[in-house]
Amino acid sequence: MSWRLKEQLKNMLAEESGYYIYHAGGRTRVALLYPNSYFVGMSNLGLHIIYRLLNQREDTACERGFLPEKRQQDEYIKHKVQLMTMETQSVVSSFDIVAFIMSFEMDYFNILRMLELGKIKLLATERGEMDPLVIAGGPCATFNPEPMSPFVDAFIIGEGEAVMPTFMDTYNRAKGEGCSKEEILSILAKIPGVYVPSRYEVSYGQNGYDTQIKPIGDAPERICRQWQENLDEYPGETAIYTENTEFNLHLVEIARGCGRHCRFCMAGYCFRKPRNRSLEAIEKMLLAAKEKGRRVGLMGAAISDYPEIDQLCREILGDGLSMSVASFRADSVTQELVDSLAASGLKTLTMAPEAGSTRMRAVINKGIEEEHLLNAMSMGIKAGIRNFRLYIMIGLPGEEPSDIQGIIDMALKLKDFMEEKGATGRLTLSINPFIPKPFTPFQWSPMAPIKYIQGALKEITNALRKRHNIEVIAESPRDAYVQAVLARGNRETGNILLEAYENGGSKAMKSVLKRHKLSMEELVSHPVSFDNILPWDILDMGFTKDYLKKELIESQQEKPKHTIQCFDGCKRCGVCK
């Protein structure tokens, strides 16, 4: 039966272009695994960047692997076939290194599934000399690796371009010298930006947040996040083309990081400082899109903040290409950007006020006001766009009933404005429960009780359902709670994760916690003291804890002071010291 699964992978590969295959020996073999479907994983630009970076080395052969569809998983298990890679249909257990991309907490269950399908023991302590080295990187690895520490040998803390070259050099040298796996991990632990959990002892206080993590031997006291200062040194674009992906685009990263200081946003803190690629470097990456006739997908935290966005739009459309964007801010969007998106076939313009009331937008330091939303909407309508989407959070710190009403009032006002301007399309509210993430000013804040979140969703939905062409879609509050437990967890959370995985996955989290006399609300719905030791305190993002405390205190004031965005020469947070 393995031949049929191999043929499926070969058929998928036959529809791709741009991949690497190395048949010659002498290279370190890396299986780069995305813990979700091929359809989703091939839309992840980070996968393309690391895949190209590793394969352009003369000593490394990197192949990709994805979570098979449910039906295929059943075939793997039924016929005792191991998980295989795309390029050569090799079993992942035969690789030297298995590298996971950790982008979303809910994918943690999929990582365990892929290890199991690959016949690799789940717990790092149970793997031996002949087993692959299991590493992980990505946003979730960077801001809190602790819940996945029982399963991963080494984490990349920060951006891959800044860590992986040294990591691979060091690994290959140690391997060539005949070092044991334990010796290799001890050596890797000394690389800036590499966290090796086995080189640290963990103890706990009376609550889960007093997590003492102490180095063993000469492992560093703290692990400093690494970041690539000059993005132009590495291409940030699609490496492999396929039609079978969520975003059928030529992805181009034009900027990384964000300096807007939104207090809820982990990416805004863990990817500082904000950096722009040069227009010249971006133009080179557009050549492949032109050659392939692909629509260009501009990637970045806020595309409209790119200083030469209008010129870039002119060049893309001038080359006969179309475009889309990952995101833009309503206070910096230009008519030329909106016109370019409309000319490229965009049907829905998305904005992210995050909160409905002026007060709450000040609390989270969003910097978007109603006038910005109306102005952006006016630009969209002028360009011929008739549908609009708003990203909203509920359960934010300090939120009151009037703030929920503010969401309703904002939606009705924007819908009135659409109709006044002749836009008869749909207004969609995409609502997500707020999750207090590590390394943000709200890391000490509680998550709102699940009954409150459910009640707020019901109130918004009931108030807007009578209005024609307003749609409310929302993330499951229970899923959000699972995410919060995993995002804020410690190493013991990994044991809970494993038990839940063995008993049905994320749906089993509540019952597993109950067996341990815990609850999801108990873990995430209480404020944390400034004095508590947090599970992620072993990591250093470059900014000070005092800076985060100051931002939290300002958010709690009656009239929160607005923190202006990053600027050259700024020394406020410490990243640019």
Model description:
- By secondary structure, the chain is of the alpha/beta class.
- Helix content is 37%, strand content 15%.
- The protein is globular, with a radius of gyration of 24 Å.
- The relative contact order is 0.10.
- The model has no long low-confidence stretch (mean pLDDT 95).
Task: Name its key features.
alpha/beta
Radius of gyration: 24 Å
Question: How many helices in DSSP terms?
Answer: 21
Q: Quick one: biggest sheet?
A: 6 strands, mixed
Strand content: 5-15%
Give the total of beta strands. Answer: 19
Helix content: 25-40%
SSE class: alpha/beta
Shape from CA axes? globular
Furnish the topology, listing elements before pairings:
Elements lengths: L1 H13 L13 E7 L3 H4 L3 H11 L4 E7 L3 H9 L18 E5 L6 H10 L15 E5 L1 H5 L10 E3 L3 H17 L4 H8 L5 E2 L4 E5 L6 E5 L7 E2 L25 E4 L1 E2 L9 H5 L4 E2 L2 H14 L3 E4 L9 H10 L4 E3 L9 H9 L4 E7 L3 H6 L6 H13 L4 E8 L6 H20 L6 E7 L16 H15 L5 E5 L2 H11 L3 H12 L6 H7 L4 H5 L14 E2 L4 H11 L22
Parallel strand pairs: 1-2, 1-3, 3-4, 4-5, 9-19, 10-13, 13-14, 15-16, 16-17, 17-18
Antiparallel strand pairs: 5-6, 7-8, 11-12
Helix pairs in contact: 3-7, 7-8, 12-14, 14-15, 15-16, 18-19
